[in-house]
Amino acid sequence: MKYYILAMLFTVSVATSQRLEGIVLGDNQTPLQDVSIINQNNGLHAHSNSNGKFSIAVGINDSIYFSSLGFAAKTLVVTSTNIITKNTVYLKPASIALEQVVLVSKVDVLSTLAGVDLENSPVKSSQEILRKVPGLILGQHAGGGKAEQIFLRGFDIDHGTDIALSVDGLPVNMVSHAHGQGYADLHFVIPETVANINFGKGPFYAQQGNFNTAGFVDLRLRKSIDKSIISLELGDFNTQRLLGMFPILENKNSTAYIASELYLTDGPLESPQNFNRINIMGRYNYKVLGDQELVLTASHFQSRWDASGQIPQRAVDQNIIGRFGAIDDTEGGTTSRTNLLVNHTKTLEKGVVKSKAYASYYDFELYSNFTFFLNDPINGDQIKQREERVLVGGETVYSSGAENATAKSIDFQTGIGFRYDDSSENELSSTLNRQTIIDRIAFGDVDELNTYGFFNASYKTGAFIINPAIRLDYFKFNYLNRLSEVYDYKSEDKVAFSPKLNINYSPNLKTQYFLKSGIGFHSNDARVVVANSGESILPAAYGLDLGVLYKPFKDLIINATAWSLFLEQEFVYVGDAGIVEPSGKTRRLGVELGARFQATDWFYIHADANYTYGRSIEEPKGAQFIPLAPDITATGGFSIQKDNISAGLNYRYIDDRPANEDNSIVAEGYFVTDATVSYTRKNWTVGIIVENMFNTEWNETQFATESRLFNESASVEEIHFTPGMPFYVRAKLSVTF
Question: What's the number of domains the chain is made of?
């Protein structure tokens, strides 16, 4: 499919200032948004709005640079002739590459780099989607059906407490969840439907609210597909995956497609996981050029699995079980989520209004056993966590026109929205063999409301972009305790005020400096809020970033950031025990380094390394370590796309880290390497996916846990771990038509 960029039609009076004004168009005269237009002589820059319109000040002999991901860049030289004539500039379609990334085009270019990474090395699994965020490490510890454990910026984020996740604006994090605050299960996303990944680190973004402390990630799904695809994967451990994606409508204004995924595996453990997951999604896109766009998304996901849980190191050392064995192999669970999402964009004469509305029905049931026979030496310590949830919300955002580029200009964005969660029969119980409820520890109904508004301005003056912003959140927490013999309904509310200030300085097209500052927060579980009479409801996070992006030549980008993050005192609800646990104030200081190099048009290299110094600041010396918070992480790899062959290799590293506050128990680090290779002939593709290609013995997740085995008279606190995937091969066959 061919695309064109038409830089057009301008008439400049000799007596007035000269401007190049026009519209950026693609295939079938479709306006293209966010095309970078840069005057290389005076440094002014603009990007096209949702109508494809732009305006930039010019003079005779100025060089105007057009660039957009997916197109070869081109330069237009302004002459006296073309000022008074109609000009058409064509940009030829090209594979996404680093040369198309312009440092001055956006406030946060790092998110654009993730798009380049995604193009050069597409995700192979739902787990790998988030690994495209530089510095983010994932770990699975419950048979593949549970949300992954996340590490970012020196945080053990657990399942999402300090990172805001969304899909085209649909929230993923679950507040006051049965298992853990902010629980974020992304398994309802089919990897092949992801078009791009928008992310940011730190609490610096006005449109992001709850859980945006370490950062945020918003997955952007494909609005349409050109061809149908059927893909089959077969691999070790009785693994099978079937994917289908089919366009079902395509005309002048409308497109639609459906996608579905079936995934089955027993996993590498001695007790089969019996894992199955099914996803189905449909998207409809209606667009009137230059006027409005409507995107409807409906999806359903459900999965079931058995798990062997986290096992104690001593059981392996004493040959009671092997590394892939189990103490209690009756763990596991079921979950499902049904979503309806509406995104609407309306283009006005001098701005754009974007609105969204969403509704989800969510079901969750999880069985775990972390302590084995510590509390109940007869029946064991298995627990059940369950909830049903209805989630609804909406948001409307107005953005002023951003197509003008002058020496000084102001653009702004303002929005309002709400989110309401109704979690019924939120349960924590002691159970036996996933069948018998021995005792209910916590049981009640949670409903939680969050309304918010924000204002975000962007003031351009010379080489500076100054971005002040404010956000205001109101929360209402309600909890009905069903275990009480009398009616026990409690309610609390709270307001959070979150100012931000970001400054970008771009002295030339090769360099961008940035300073980011802001306050964010994550909410506490509603049960904590009402139990503590409204204290420490929304503990704040204070962040500061200072960094630079440098592009010494068109095929190399280097980024470096020094950052700090301070978290206030907070109380955390421990879903596995039904108790409130204070965590205290913490401070983290860190450095991030990254590089991306397009060695040739077919060879791409990327690498990121991160160092964090994090400590609790209210504890005595020697007991200040933050459990499971990594000091050093690194990710990287390379990809090859030449002729009919595609190949890639990716690695991830995490260092040894303290598993408890005094570092007397250590969680071991690991270095794991994955690889892929595929060959395409006509419309057929055959490939091999290899995980842990060097068969490294590694622990994917680890915890310092006090437990007691069936044959022990006393408890022991030590590392409990889930073994990482051993050498694992899958073959893949795909056909497009």
Answer: 2
